[in-house]
Specification:
Elements: H1 2-46, E1 49-54, E2 56-71, E3 75-79, E4 84-89, E5 96-97, E6 102-106, H2 109-160, H3 165-192, H4 197-214, E7 217-219, E8 224-229, E9 236-237, E10 242-248, E11 252-259, E12 271-276, E13 279-296, E14 301-308, E15 320-337, E16 342-343, E17 348-355, E18 358-369, E19 373-378, E20 385-387, E21 400-404, H5 409-414
Helix pairs in contact: 2-3, 2-4
Length: 424
């Protein structure tokens, strides 16, 4: 009995120890549960965790982004003025030409024969017909002198009674015939003299034949670069047919169509950074040089031109180019990412700002805009927290905000080509 009672007494302290330990564990577990519940209730009271932005002061550059194509100041189309067969083609695409350079030669056997015929006719006049006329004129002058001398002698003989009246009449008639012949030959000689209408007519015929022959040689009238060729040796060409397209030398330009709503931010002389789609690693500079005076009513677009001077060697006619045109700059601007704005007008928007842990709708007035950031002129202050998505929460709700980093200029350059404006 003693051993049993002793064993029973030793068990009771052990049970008492385990009970106390279990009791303490229960209290600790209950405290943890209460704290977790309190934390959950606090978090629930605070609201959901949402991404947002902290409004900051930083430099801002407003840009307009769009795509265009490379154009030259003018494109010249060269054709033939006569019908003929191409004998030679002397240029290829990309060749540089100067005024007077030969582009192609047409077969011109008939035209050359006309030139030789006109040259022969003029030579005939100068070397044969005119000298013959002058010689005949001199001979007629001699004949008239002889006839006049004979008339004088016959008159003297009549006075002496040594001849008849019939002889005198015959001598006077011969003198009249010689005088008429001299007048006729004088007119012929005058008609063949240097500078006479006959000579001028032959010279004009020769000039016309040479001009026609010159048309068989197709030359460039401008300095530039051959873009396309549409003729090969053996082709029959006709007047009005385009044989070559030449880009006239001059400052290279980029033609860009923009939505008309961007006219308010455009000014001549604004700088642009351009990138050819074919050479994305080689950007180049340009300046806004032209803004069209009219808007395309079908597209609602206005045409602008950017002057590229000097132009990179890799630029080609009609090449696609993306431009980033700087239209405004601020050294310090209160900025907010574009995705946090709910647009309500041209320069108006609303944001969801967090004040005292609650969501409040705040109207703001906007200023400059870049690819990802917009200047807030009124409505917010430096350090305000704004929800990243203006449609994720209702006004009056409590929320918690996880601040996100604002986009940087490097992010804009390496990111999408999308613009805050609605570009074509």
């Amino acid at each position: 009995m003693k051993d049993a009672s002793g064993s029973q007494a030793s068990m009771q302290p052990r049970q008492s120890l385990f009970g106390r330990i279990a009791y303490h564990y229960k209290k600790i577990l209950a405290a943890i549960l209460i704290l977790a519940l309190a934390l959950w209730l606090y978090r629930h009271w605070q609201g959901p965790l949402l991404p947002g932005y902290r409004v900051e002061l930083r430099p801002l550059v407003q840009t307009v982004v769009a795509s265009g194509r490379v154009v030259t100041p003018s494109r010249v189309q060269v054709g033939s003025e006569i019908t003929g067969v191409v004998l030679e083609r002397r240029v290829w695409e990309g060749d540089r030409v100067a005024p007077g350079d030969v582009l192609a030669v047409l077969k011109a056997d008939e035209l050359q024969a006309r030139v030789r015929e006109a040259e022969a006719a003029l030579a005939q006049l100068e070397r044969v017909t005119r000298p013959q006329a002058q010689a005949a004129l001199k001979q007629a002058q001699v004949q008239l002198e002889l006839a006049s001398r004979n008339v004088r002698r016959q008159r003297e003989l009549i006075q002496q009674g040594s001849t008849s009246q019939a002889a005198l009449d015959q001598a006077e008639e011969a003198e009249t015939v010689a005088r008429v012949a001299l007048q006729r030959l004088q007119l012929e000689a005058d008609a063949l003299a240097p500078g006479s209408p006959s000579e001028l007519l032959l010279q004009e015929k020769l000039a016309a034949a040479r001009a026609a022959l010159a048309q068989s040689v197709i030359r460039s009238q401008v300095a530039g670069t051959v873009l396309t060729r549409h003729a090969e040796p053996g082709d029959l060409v006709q007047p009005g047919q385009v044989l070559f397209d030449i880009a006239r030398d001059g400052a290279t330009e980029i033609l860009v169509p923009l939505d008309e709503e961007h006219l308010q931010v455009l000014q001549l002389g604004q700088s642009a950074r351009c990138v050819a789609d074919a050479y994305p690693a080689q950007p180049f500079a340009a300046k806004l040089s032209f803004i069209a005076l009219r808007v395309d009513p079908q597209l609602g677009a206005v045409e602008i031109r950017l002057r590229v001077d000097p132009a990179p060697d890799f630029l080609r006619q009609d090449m696609t180019v993306s431009m980033n045109l700087e239209t405004g700059r601020r050294a310090r601007a209160l900025v907010l990412p574009n995705d946090a704005l709910l647009r309500t007008g041209a320069n108006q928007a609303e944001v969801l700002v967090i004040r005292h842990g609650e969501v409040q709708r705040q109207p703001v007035r906007l200023g400059l805009e870049s690819l990802s950031l917009t200047e807030v002129v009124e409505g917010l202050a430096d350090g305000d927290l704004v929800l990243a998505d203006p449609a994720t929460s209702a006004v009056g709700e409590r929320v918690r905000v996880t601040p996100q980093a604002l986009p940087t200029a490097a992010d804009e350059r390496s990111g999408s080509r999308e613009s805050p404006f609605n570009f074509n």
